[in-house]
Structure formats: C-alpha cells, structure tokens
Amino acid sequence: MRRRLGQVWVALGLLVGLNLWVALPSGGQAGPTGEAPKDPAAVEAALRAKLEKTPNDLELLFQLGNALYDQGRRTEAQQLFQRVINKQPDFVKALVNLGVVLNESGKSDSALVYFDRAEAISPKEITVLCNKGQALYALREYQKAIELYRTSMVLEPNNALPHYLLGVAFADAGIYREAIREWQKVVAVDPNSEAAKTAADGIKVLQGLLPPGERN
C-alpha cells in the first residue's frame, strides 16, 4: 500500500514539497545564486515604489506576487498572478505560479488547467513539467507524475529537482533504495541547495528503515 507523505514524512520533520523552490524565484532557486536571501517585505516595498512609476509593468507585478507569496499572503499573490495572465495569457511564469498557489490550496484540478496552458507554450521547461507532476501526484495520478519527472531528467540531466521529486514518489511508495538513489543524485548535482540538505536528511531516515544487511 502506498504511504501518504502527509502522514509519514511530516512526523519525521522532513520537507516534502518544493513548490516554492520550483516556481517562485524570489523565494529561492534550484541551486545557489551567490546572493543572500532578501526580506520579502523589503522586496515588496521596493516593487511597489517602482510600480508607482510603471503600474502596468507585468514583470514587476509578477515579482510582487512572489513577494506576497513569500509573506504567506497567498490570496493576494493569486490575484496578482491572475491579473498578469489576464493582461498577457502566455506569461508562463505567472501561469506556473498561479498553478502552484492553487495546488497548495488543494485545488489541484484547477491548477492543472494552468500547468497545461504553460506546457503548451513551453513544453520543454522542467519547471512547468515538475509542477504539473506535483499536481498530478496530489490527484493520485502517480504514474503520470513520475513520467513527467523522468521526462524532465532527459531534458536536463544535471537538474536536481526531478530527482528530488522522483525520490519523494519512491519514498512515498515504500521503495526506499530507489528513493535513496535519487536523493543521492540530488546531493551530487546540487550539493549546496536546500533540496540537497533535505535529501541528505531523507537518506539518513530511509537508511534506518532498511533491513540491517542492506544499509550502506
């Protein structure tokens, strides 16, 4: 029987979702950026100051949505992403982020609508594919989600994200050795990222769950 991460990994104190890392650059990216994280409230203030001069700048509105998301103001962020999309329907980053907010709100079916639109525009963008995979996973379309993670690996073999998410899927299914293998790849390709730290913690937990003779 598949184990649900909400019941298993939360008890272990591990991060299980990377939506913020995947789709919202203001909160962090896949791998080190060389810059210290910025205070979201300060980012918001700076963006609003710029928007006073150029109120219709869609990129600034998108970034403001990210800053609001980083502060936990999900409804306001959602409204801004929708506003950007209404003005520019092919704004892929806004489509993805709106999908992320909806998925995290338990509206995975609605999220898929926006992920599908983003994929139609950018079919080889793994940020799109992995987030769509997470929505499918939330809907228990496990195999479809895994196929998207594997497609992402082919497109970008050295990107840690699909390996992380595939590891989560294997761990959730109780396939621990495969999960460990995928998380070891995360640590190898992106050792300084938050995902690598989380993966390393997950590896330790899963190794403790393996039979004694199978532990490394």
Question: What is the secondary structure topology, with strand pairs?
Answer:
Layout: H1 5-12, H2 19-23, H3 40-53, H4 58-70, H5 74-87, H6 92-104, H7 108-121, H8 126-138, H9 142-155, H10 160-172, H11 176-189, H12 194-209
Helix pairs in contact: 3-4, 4-5, 5-6, 6-7, 6-8, 7-8, 8-9, 8-10, 9-10, 10-11, 10-12, 11-12
Question: What's a concise summary of this model?
Answer:
This protein is 70% helix and 0% strand. It has 216 residues and is mostly helical. The radius of gyration is 18 Å and the shape is elongated.
- Unreliable stretches, pLDDT < 50, 5 or more residues? 3-36
Question: Radius of gyration, rounded?
Answer: 18 Å
Strand tally, please?
Answer: 0
Number of helices: 12
Determine the N-to-C terminus distance.
26 Å
Largest sheet: none
Order of helices and strands: HHHHHHHHHHHH
| Strand percentage | under 5%
Shape: elongated
Tell me the structural class. Answer: mainly alpha
Q: How helix-rich are the residues, as a percent range?
A: 55-70%
User: Quick check: average pLDDT?
Assistant: 84
